[in-house]
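Q: My labmate handed me this sequence with no annotations at all. I'd like to see what the chain might look like in three dimensions before we decide whether it's worth expressing. Could you predict it?
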Amino acid sequence: MPMVPELPPISETGRYSISAAAKLLGISRPSLYKLIEKGWIIPRKYRNSNRPYVCGADIRRCYYKIVN
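A: Here is what I predict for the chain of 68 residues:
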């Protein structure tokens, strides 16, 4: 799974769309959904729109889990 060589600066408390999270990790959206299925990333949903988002802390944790 190709990834970015170094994780760009992200906010631990930031909320990122599925597309933005995939872009930050340097993977495709289908690859991100595979990581979600594995439980490595847990998407949450906005209350008003019910759209999914990923917390910055989850992106960082997943990145280091894959790299190590």
